[in-house]
Structures are given as C-alpha cells and as structure tokens.
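Fold this sequence, please.
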Amino acid sequence: MKSFHLLKLTLFAVGGLTTVLNVVESFYVYIFHKPIFVHLYFMKKKLPKNKKEFLVSSIEFYQKLEPKYQSYYEHRVAKFIRSYEFVERDGFEITPEMKVLIASSYVKLTFGMRRYLTATFQRVIIYPEVYYSLLTKQYHKGEFNPAFKTISFSWEDFLMGDIITNDNINLGIHEFAHALTFHGSSSRDASARIFYRFFKRISNFLDEEENIKEIQESAFFREYAMTNKLEFVAVILEHFFESPKELQQQFPRLYAKIEAMLNYKSILDRQ
C-alpha cells in the first residue's frame, strides 16, 4: 500500500512538473520563436550497416554536421523508417537506400523541431514515375492526402529533386512541407505552433500588394508558387534548401521567416 501511495505521489509530481514546463515553454516560444530544447534522446536508434553506409556516403546534409548532430540525424532517419509504412505501386521495388533518401528529405526539413514526426500521414507511397490519381483525376508527381494519411511520390521526380540541387525543385521538401503545414494548423506542440505561426506571417506578407508585385517582377520563384499560399510556402522552402544565399539576398524578410519557421539558425551555425 505504501509503495502504491509513493507511485501516486511520483506521478502527481511528474504531472505537475510537466505542466509547469509547458507553461514556461509557452512563454519562451512566444518570445524567442523556438522550443527550449530540440535534441534529447535517452536511447538513440541506429541504422543497419547498409543504410548507415548510404547515409554516410550519399547525404550531403548529414556529412556537414558535427559528429554529435550526425548521431541525432541518424536516430531520426531510423525513427522515420520505423514509424511509416512504405508502399510500392505499379511493380516498383523500394530499396533500403531509397528509404534512407526519403527519410532524410523529411528529417532535413524538421531537424530544428523537437517533435518531428507527424500523424498527418502514415504511409509513403512510391510510384516509378508520374502517376494518375483516381481521386483527383489528374496526373501527379507528388501528392499529400490528409484524408487518407498518405504522401505519394513519383520516384523519378523525387530522385531528380535530390540529384539536381540548383534548380529549386525538390519534390520531397515540397510535399513534406504540405504535411507539416497541415500538422501545424491543429497541433499544440511547440515546434508545430512555431511552424504554423510563420506560415501565417508569410501568408500576411502575400496579402500586401507591393510584396506580390516585387515577387512577380523578380521572376525569382517559378510560376507555380503563385497558385496559392500553401504552394508558395512549399516552393520557398525548396529555395531555402537549394539556394539559401540567393533567397536571403533577394528576399531577406522571407528568408528570416523560413529560418525561424524551421528553427534553423543554430543548425546552419553547426554546418
């Protein structure tokens, strides 16, 4: 009986401490636009040898990180691969290396967030090339479907986005950005709130006619960016990863918003 009461007191104390920390972090997030901490892992997961070798040899973002942050990155890649179902379509075969590349695209985008995994999708569907969607009755290179909790990619186009790093087209970043925006619109997690807060600030930026005029006259972003605000944010995230210096030079205010949205300043300092 005594141990039972001790357990109750311990749980009560932990609950109280959690509440206090949440309140403190809410103020911290409001003031500094970032969570109090990002990386805290009691047991970091590791990739099997073949996947780790591919990560080390092929993922440039990982290669630029300090060793400590490389271990965090590997942990997150391993968690992503274990957390989501990979589905093959049209006879396509997904290799372990492909899973690392897909996971890395997501982990790179969310590396400044504490809670980086999202329940907005559960499956990653891979087609060999551009595919026809029975739902939209259109051909797609990629698609985020929150109703079915899926993200779909044409592997041909996903891979081209990673191979060609100077055209500001990256299918993985683009579709994962849509999923994170949807996640941020309803989640109470600190990183999700920050992401969505800056999504709204970019939306407000686009409400100003002079900003729209500047964007259009610059011809800096591809036309598809002007489809709507969701697509605009996804496109500038592609620019943030593929041509950050040019983005910062051309649109410093947008660059600063993206940097804060992703909590990326400290990460860039470590590369």
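Residues 1-32 form one domain. The first strand starts at residue 85 and ends at 88.
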